[in-house]
Amino acid sequence: MKWCVLSLIIVIVSVAEASISETTHTEDDGTQQSDLSINVILITISSLRADHVSCLDYIRDTTPKFDAFAKKNVLFCNAFATSGWMMPAHGSIFTSLYPSLHGATHIDKCLGNEHYTLAEILADNGFYCVGFCCNPRLDREHGFAQGFDLYDDYSVSMMLESLAFGDVVNINKQRTNALINDAAIRWLKNNTHKPFFMFLHYYDNHWDYLPPPPYSERYDSNYDGPIDGTQIAREPLFSNPPSERDIQHMIALYDGEVRQTDNDLGEILNVLLYTGVLDNSIIIIMGDHGEQFYEHGHTSHQGIYEELIHVPLAISVPGVRAKCRTINSLVSQVDILPTILDYLQIPIPEQYQGKSLKSLIEGQVKNVNEFVFAEYTGGAAPDCYAVRSIRYKCCQEVGGEPFVYDLAEDRTEQKRIVLDRESEEVETLEENLLKFIR
Questions:
Q1: What are 290-347's pLDDT values in tens digits?
Q2: Is 334 left (phi over 0), alpha (psi -120 to 50) or beta?
């Protein structure tokens, strides 16, 4: 009975996609055609810390598929999220604006309709825009469907609920990446639109940490304690750390989810290869934010510590792939949209706060950002703002005084330093932080 319902839903979703796909952008409808007929594929991975990615020097082999993609293309070692959680981070990717400007800063707020999003720009330039996600914070109700011809934020939940006979499904306890892949692959195999923009979001890295076998046993098979991967962001774990052994098992379960997600990423990359899409597309793969394991007293993702904002980023551009570059310069999520537009020869709107990475990718310059910004206004921790250079991070919590972390000496941000205004670099950071807050 369950599989009958599931089959019916798959047919319904497929018919809906086919119906939607009949609408195409033509020059007659007033859109401006892009100069290049290449596709754009943006893949974001929930809660993926840079320091848990094996090609970024993690001790475990967690991301072989991502590593292989990065090795052939361009890997950014110092890429940063604009916030420590998904809504503001994705808002910045979609709009090239920092969170306070794009508006998606809290679960009861939305990405503002007044902003010209990546999908809207590409749609206006002749791209057919599709998105596949199951994250309840990235749904159309929160404004993330703007500009998409098809934004599938519903079919995964429909399938899971059908298998539960209509009961409400807790998406944090389900494996959803495979269903996202199924929907995206089905669309790719039936797609006739050229060029197209595809957005994919993998959610399985997000707590709860419940990787399926064999990933559940891969990194800590001998554990016999109480941690089972659930209730990660709830009391008593939230503010009362368990033993170090329990924390290590929690991390092992998270790493299992990372490895599982990497395998799912490999599946979609293989499909892109065999359908001929891989070599004719700008492909961006990045974490949306990181995760906490009590480095600063908490689990989940709140605040703007390095474990939350340092994310992996790899980019493939047709014709640039052979350069195989590893880039250590500072880059931000607000830089993604200008980079895409630059490569497509589409004018970059002046109001965008990011910078194109094209000249960096092609080796014409060594840096495009002297520093990058981040902010947290999610409500679970004090509002905080930060500006980061390669060495220093200058922070200010609302109502408090600015302080600095020296990341060269204190990589894990355990020691707050009173501002040394005799240091020209620190003084410049403070000036830019105060300007950013204003």
A1: 999 999 888 888 889 999 999 999 999 998 754 558 999 999 999 999 999 999 999 9
A2: alpha
pLDDT tops 70 at residue 413: yes
Rounded Cα–Cα distance for residues 69 and 273 (Å): 12
Write the CA distances from 218 to 81, 213, 249, 264, integer angstroms: 29, 8, 11, 16
If we measure between CA atoms, which residue out of 192, 219, 228 comes closest to residue 58?
219
User: According to DSSP H, which parts of 75-143 are helical?
Assistant: 86-95, 99-102, 118-124
pLDDT in tens, 236-279: 666 678 899 999 999 999 999 999 999 999 999 999 999 999 99
Distance (Å, whole) CA 72 – CA 315: 10
- Decide if pLDDT at 122 tops 80: yes
Residue 10 has pLDDT above 70, yes or no: no
Which DSSP letter does residue 140 get? G
Contact by Cβ (8 Å): 403, 421: no
How confident is the model over 59-84, as pLDDT tens digits? 999 999 999 999 999 999 999 999 99
Using the structure block, give the residue that is written with the tokens 């250590």: 328
Q: What are the domain boundaries of the chain?
A: 2-23+33-370, 382-438
User: For 383-392, which contacts have Cβ atoms below 8 Å and span 24 or more sequence positions?
Assistant: 384/303, 384/304, 385/304, 385/433, 385/436, 385/437, 386/304, 386/433, 387/429, 387/432, 387/433, 387/436, 388/80, 388/330, 389/330, 389/425, 389/429, 390/78, 390/330, 391/425, 392/425, 392/426, 392/429
**Which tokens belong to 254?**
């998270």
What CATH class does 2-23+33-370 carry? alpha beta
Helix (H) or strand (E) run with residue 328 in it: strand 325-332
- Give percent helix, percent strand, percent coil of the chain, each to the nearest 5: 35, 20, 45
